[in-house]
């Protein structure tokens, strides 16, 4: 190749036209080989460029530079010209006698072609890249609706913005119960982040309910204009993703998170003060925040009462009737200040002006919320995810047990834990202190999942819709009947053969049936009922599996002899009752808690000392 180049230089400087003609004729094959080599180098370069273009143009936000388009056009033209030359060379070489004039013309043309090919190949080094900067838009604007509750939104937004602008905080958790508006708030903040251009990249990814690392990698890549192949393995994708994000200041919002994951496994650079990157995890589970080692957690609370009403009327339309307004406010109140429920019910009642329809809606939302259009699919399904993601069946059972309490009831934590332990829902059997510790851990898990909420230091409560969801789930499994706080005067139909847990606390029941057949019953909660002084003698005769019996704050003065046959009983709660005497309890070998505090009892049975100390730990009375 060098001989041809040096010879051509000599031709241009020293040789006569005749000598040049002889040279082109004699060296034609060598010149053709040089041209073939150079065009091969150019087409190889063209192939690489097209492959890179194909990779980048998959995402429509990448735009090819004009100079690249022009270069490709010129390459295509030049390749076509060279092919034409090669065709003419073949014809020229076929004759027995060389045509020196044709050889001269072709040789000279090919030499110019070599120069053009080399020049075009040199221009194929694109120092500015093939595309106009694909990150000129830091992110993709998300469609949003109006915000839910100005004061609540402003308070939460202000807290989130404060953390986002804090250079010392990189990992942020935004949490709250399902349907409270976490996603809506973060979508508005996300769009503002794009407009502010604080970050090179603003990334939003919706994480699937069942965490899939491969899908997460592909979604992040798609949001940042990186093409990853599904055929590549997880490690290779993580390497490419890491290289792609390295050096960029980005914020990644991961919405609807239910599981922790490894940043390293996915291929995401660890956010730090130095790189200025930030993560926001939007979740219903505080456990996820802990698992991702967030530095700051912000809880999205329920709307205020006024905000709830404003949102409700926005969806239902103005309430113009003075007769309907108090009913509509009661309907709204029964949505529990949860935005998703308010929106769903408000839409179902939109532009309804019939007072009877509003009264029916109020009755439905009190007794059968799921019957309201959209409640099952939009509200209960979302709330149920928090329940489904509880770690094991024991924790799920503890949660469902809370559904035995009345609506909006402040649940005494100590009482609830006694129930759990007596029902053997806590697995640390045999050590009361360990069981208490485990119980408080379970309680914390339920609060972290927004299934229970604190009310002071010693009480918790269930949101009305969470309670409805729990009752619906409980009905699918072991038979649970909750008629607490429903102004019942009698107890009969509730005590059936297959029922396992019954709560009729806080009613007006005074008389109990004589001979209920409840062979599977394990919990019976009768507290705060004006029961008659003497219970039927045979009331407990067919309750051999009963573990929890609560007769606190009732009018009973004595227990029937049949209580002595409750061989499985583990908790007998009689506090604040009018009890004056109890039968022998020595047959209750499994009894763990006997609560006689603040009763009228002044004397215990003579054989009470036969109860083992371990079995009566936690006993209270008025004279010990």
Automatic annotation (TrEMBL):
Source superkingdom: Eukaryota
SMART domains noted in UniProt: LRR_TYP (SM00369)
Domain NB-ARC, first and last residues per copy: 158-318
GO molecular-function term, one example from the UniProt record: ATP binding
Coiled-coil portions: 68-95
A Pfam cross-reference name: LRR_8
An individual GO BP term: defense response to virus
Keywords noted in UniProt: ATP-binding, Coiled coil, Leucine-rich repeat, Nucleotide-binding, Plant defense, Repeat, Signal
InterPro entries membership: Apaf_helical, Leu-rich_rpt, Leu-rich_rpt_typical-subtyp, LRR_dom_sf, NB-ARC, P-loop_NTPase, Plant_NBS-LRR, WH-like_DNA-bd_sf
SUPFAM superfamilies linked to this entry: L domain-like, P-loop containing nucleoside triphosphate hydrolases
Annotated ranges, domain Disease resistance protein winged helix: 404-470
Signal sequence region: 1-20
PROSITE patterns assigned: LRR
Family note: Belongs to the disease resistance NB-LRR family.
Protein's name according to its UniProt entry: NB-ARC domain-containing protein
Organism: Deinandra increscens subsp. villosa
